[in-house]
Amino acid sequence: MSNLVASQIMSHTDVGSRASSIEKWVAVADICRCLNNYNGVLEITSALNRSAIYRLKKTWAKVSKQTKALMDKLQKTVSSEGRFKNLRETLKNCNPPCVPYLGMYLTDLAFIEEGTPNFTEEGLVNFSKMRMISHIIREIRQFQQTPYRIEHQPKVTQYLMDKTLTMDEDMLYDLSLKIEPRLPA
Where in this chain does the record put each Ras-GEF domain (predicted)? Predict the structure, then answer.
C-alpha cells in the first residue's frame, strides 16, 4: 500500500498534480481514520514520509496548510513514539470494527518472547508470560469480532493489488531526483 501511494504521487509530472495527489491521499488516510483503519493511516502517512516524497520541497509548498495540519494530526495518532502511546490510547477508546496496526502487537509479542522466560526458576510454566501473550491476542481478536459493513468493490481491489502501478524504492528516489534535482551545496 505504501509503495502504491508513493508511486501514484510520483507518477504526476507537474508540481500541482503531485500536490493534489498528496492532498487526495491525506484525505484517504483521514477516511481510514474515520473507519478505524489505523493500519491504513500508518501505511499512507509512512508513504508520504518516504525520502522520495518528503524531499520534494516545491511539491510540498503547494500542499494546503489544512492538509499539512491534518497529516500532522494523523501522524501523531500512529506515531511509534512512546511504544505507540497515542495509537494505544486511540484503540482503547475505539469501537469495533477496527483495523489496528499489527506491527505494534508483533513488537509487543517479540518483546515478551525475548524478555520473559517460558519457565520459572523452579522449572514451572511461566503463567505470567502466558497471560501477557493471551492479553495481546485477546485485544487483537476483539477488533475482529465486528465485521465492516462495506460493499466489496472489485475495481478497488484490482487497483490496490495491481503491481504494475508500483515502483520500488530505487525507482521512486531516482524519479524524485529527476523531478527536483539536489541543490548544489
Answer: 1-182
pLDDT digits (tens, 9 = 90+) for 47-78: 999 999 999 999 999 999 999 999 999 999 99
Domain span including residue 141: 2-148+166-179
Q: Please tell me the total count of domains within the chain.
A: 1
Neighbours of 73 (CB within 10 A): 12
Q: Which three cell numbers stand for residue 12?
A: 504526476
Start-to-end CA distance of the chain, whole Å, equals 35
Give CA–CA dist 140/144, Å, rounded: 7
Nearest to 142 by CA among 105, 108, 110: 105
Q: Taking Cα atoms as reference points, which of 79, 126, 135, 131 lies closest to residue 105?
A: 135
Query: 29 and 35 in contact (C-beta within 8 Å)?
Result: no
User: Which helix (DSSP H) or strand (DSSP E) does residue 34 occupy?
Assistant: helix 15-34
Chain length of the chain? 185
Confidence (pTM) = 0.91
Tell me, yes or no, whether 185 lies in a domain: no
